[in-house]
Design brief:
Number of helices of chain A: 1
Helix content of chain A: over 70%
Number of strands of chain B: 4
Number of domains of chain B: 2
Helix content of chain B: over 70%
Oligomer: heterodimer
Strand content of chain A: under 5%
Order of helices and strands of chain B: HHHHHHHHHEEHHHHEEHHHHHHHHHH
Strand order of the largest sheet of chain B: 1-2
Strand content of chain B: under 5%
Number of strands of chain A: 0
CATH architecture of the largest domain in chain B: Up-down Bundle
CATH superfamily of the largest domain in chain B: Sodium/glucose cotransporter
Structural class of chain B: mainly alpha
Largest sheet of chain B: 2 strands, antiparallel
Shape of chain A: rod-shaped
CATH topology of the largest domain in chain B: Sodium/glucose cotransporter
Structural class of chain A: mainly alpha
Shape of chain B: globular
Largest sheet of chain A: none
Distance between the termini of chain A: 65 Å
Distance between the termini of chain B: 49 Å
Radius of gyration of chain B: 25 Å
CATH class of the largest domain in chain B: Mainly Alpha
Radius of gyration of chain A: 20 Å
């Protein structure tokens, strides 16, 4: 049994949980503002 | 049914929120560019959320959990390779930069600039066949997950007496039909704008569900128990398989001896009896076998079969993976991130090529978790059923994960997980429906028209196509039986288009000598490998060919890419020699152009 493999996959699993948690707040916050900006930009255009 | 009113409340609020937000975006759709690529106004974080949500469907969760169930954490190797490919492409801008700068709506549109209208049309057809076929199993797999996690039988039905007829409806089919109807409603109305906003909501719900579930699974199993358990089940499973191989050798020798002394009919009888005895042993001894790390799958109308844990930490030595598989996946994932239209549509929706590269770089590691976290749930499911004395009847490597999760998740969390999986299913379905409808309109229909359609007619056509693909998905997807390992099936059918379109893209963007002869040869030869795989393996399954004829997915995959590249090079050189394929400047040399649709 590869102990390097066990360590490697443990890091991958825990880092994934941490990264998902981070993106949840980071992208969650900034993405909300981007939706508002997107809607404003599209709303300001002249109708075709 | 394991759902409480709290779980139901979470699910209903989520669905209503998604539908409301999706329909709200309808007001901003003016033309096909708004509908297909959100007016090219997508910024970084919305791009990350949308890409991550679209590429994480319930089908992804199911097959990555299946890989975890059979190969432990090593099953997530594909995720690591995909993340590496995204980082490479996001950093260098390989393919995505010139593609975004070309100002096209779809990949085949770029091919017209280099190879002509016919190649664009043919490439569009290949993209549609590969993509829509790939989408064929989404609904059923998603439905099976939902049925398992809510504790319902996947074959459960209810009856409705109407116009004197007793109609029978399956819960799975009705649930997935309602879900797809909601998705169709907001996708048809708002297109990519609705998809971006709903993807954002779905990204949040999905992320929350995945993080909470993963933490609870680790807490329930205990990390050291998880690692030690996987090592123990792997070793004892290997011992069983070695003993089983020895016995099979002995039995084969007995059959061969009988064939020589008595005849082939008697030998076949013995072979059948041996198979029956083995099946009876698996059924009667399943609890004993479970203690040895062997889980027996018992399904109706199928002989029982055993599952063991492959090397959980080393993908190069893990059964079903291996060096060739890893190499093939490295190449396959590079093709996926540069060619798969649903991923590329986020590149084409980005404000500019710089934003597209940043979206790729920032999303890269998400793809490790896309495999590693459901893989963790799948591996934990293996350990749970090992300790519990075997798999319940009707549960296999694909459905073991949801069957396990319903036993460890508390009230409320099941609701969050179901909402997360609904989010995963909806975001994938909406993204895929929109993408394939756009390709059909942009590359198959508009190229055949002598007179361009009005803006309103274009929009109506794409909306109708979304609806038609949705209906196709409903009937084809819900009644389709998954053949064997879902991941290999998806990978190989996707290969039908990935190999040829990847070759065409690389040729179009980076080789001045590429021409339409090479492009045609690349498309045709790139499709032969995967089709041959499906046909030969179907014949092996039907006992027309011997089992030694079976082609491994990685061999078919390499063959497809090799043949496609060979077709591009030989065809282009031949075309040049015959004076039919004058090379044109590469798209990366040309100035960005406005959308033609």
């Amino acid at each position: 049994m590869s102990s390097f493999g066990a360590w490697f996959w443990a890091i991958m699993i825990f880092a994934s949980i941490a990264w998902y948690g981070f993106l949840l707040f980071n992208v969650g916050g900034k993405g909300g503002f981007e939706i508002v900006t997107l809607a404003r930009t599209l709303g300001k255009r002249d109708p075709k | 049914m394991t759902l409480t009113p709290i779980d139901w409340g979470i699910i209903v609020v989520y669905l209503a929120g998604c539908m409301g937000a999706g329909i709200w975006m309808r007001r901003y759709v003016r033309d096909v560019e708004d509908f297909a690529v959100a007016g090219r106004e997508m910024d970084l974080n919305l791009g990350i959320a949308s890409l991550a949500a679209t590429e994480m469907g319930v089908v992804t969760v199911m097959y990555t959990a299946q890989l975890g169930f059979t190969n432990g954490p090593a099953g997530a190797t594909v995720g690591v390779l995909m993340a590496a490919a995204m980082l490479l492409v996001g950093t260098t801008g390989f393919v995505i930069r010139p593609l975004r700068d070309a100002g096209v709506i779809t990949i085949p549109e770029l091919f017209e600039k280099r190879f002509g209208k016919r190649v664009r049309w043919l490439a569009g057809l290949v993209v549609i066949l590969g993509g829509v076929l790939n989408m064929g199993i989404f609904l059923r797999l998603g439905g099976e997950f939902l049925m398992q996690i809510t504790g319902m039988d996947i074959h459960a039905k209810f009856s409705l007496l109407s116009v004197g007829i007793d109609w029978q409806f399956g819960y799975l089919e009705v649930t997935m039909t309602v879900l797809l109807t909601i998705v169709l409603l907001y996708t048809v109305l708002g297109g990519m704008l609705s998809v971006l906003v709903t993807d954002y909501l779905q990204f949040l719900v999905m992320g929350l569900g995945i993080v909470v579930t993963s933490i609870l699974v680790i807490h329930a199993v205990g990390w050291s128990n998880f690692q030690e358990g996987l090592a123990e089940t792997h070793q004892s499973g290997e011992q069983y398989l070695t003993a089983q191989k020895e016995q099979e050798k002995k039995q084969a020798a007995e059959v061969a001896a009988l064939r020589e002394s008595v005849g082939s009919a008697a030998a076949q009888n013995l072979k059948d009896r041996q198979a029956e005895e083995h099946a009876a042993m698996l059924k009667s001894q399943s609890a004993v076998l479970a203690k040895q790390g062997v889980l027996v799958v018992v399904e109706e109308d199928k002989p029982p079969r055993e599952t063991t844990m492959a090397d959980p930490y080393n993908p190069f030595a893990s059964k079903g993976l291996g060096v060739l598989y890893v190499l093939w996946q490295a190449m396959f994932q590079l093709a996926v991130v540069t060619t798969w239209q649903t991923m590329i549509s986020r590149v084409l929706s980005a404000k500019d090529s710089k934003t597209a590269g940043r979206v790729y770089r920032r999303t890269a590691f998400y793809f490790v978790g896309r495999f590693a976290l459901p893989g963790l749930w799948g591996a934990a499911a293996f350990l749970y059923f090992w300790k519990a004395g075997g798999l319940p009847a009707g549960v296999d490597s694909l459905t073991a994960m949801p069957a396990y999760l319903k036993t460890v998740l508390p009230m409320g969390v099941i609701g969050i997980l179901i909402a997360a999986m609904l989010a995963a299913e909806m975001s994938t379905d909406s993204g895929y429906l929109l993408t394939w409808a756009t390709v059909i309109y942009n590359d198959l229909i508009s190229t055949c028209l002598r007179k361009p359609m009005s803006s309103r007619a274009k929009l109506f056509t794409v909306r109708t196509l979304v609806l038609v693909i949705g209906l196709f998905l409903l009937f084809w997807g819900l009644w389709y039986e998954i053949p064997g390992n879902a991941w290999d099936y998806l990978a190989v059918t996707g290969n039908i288009y990935l190999a040829s379109v990847f070759t065409l893209l690389v040729g179009a963007l980076y080789w001045r000598g590429a021409n339409r002869w090479g492009a045609m040869a690349a498309i045709i030869l790139g499709a032969i490998g995967p089709i041959l795989f499906l046909v030969v393996n179907a014949m092996v399954k039907a006992n027309v060919f011997d089992a030694s004829w079976k082609i491994r997915p990685e061999i078919a995959g390499f063959a497809a890419f090799g043949m496609s590249f060979a077709g591009m090079i030989i065809g282009s050189l031949l075309g040049q020699a015959l004076g039919h394929g004058n090379p044109t400047p590469t798209s990366s040399d040309s100035q960005p152009k406005e959308v033609t649709a």
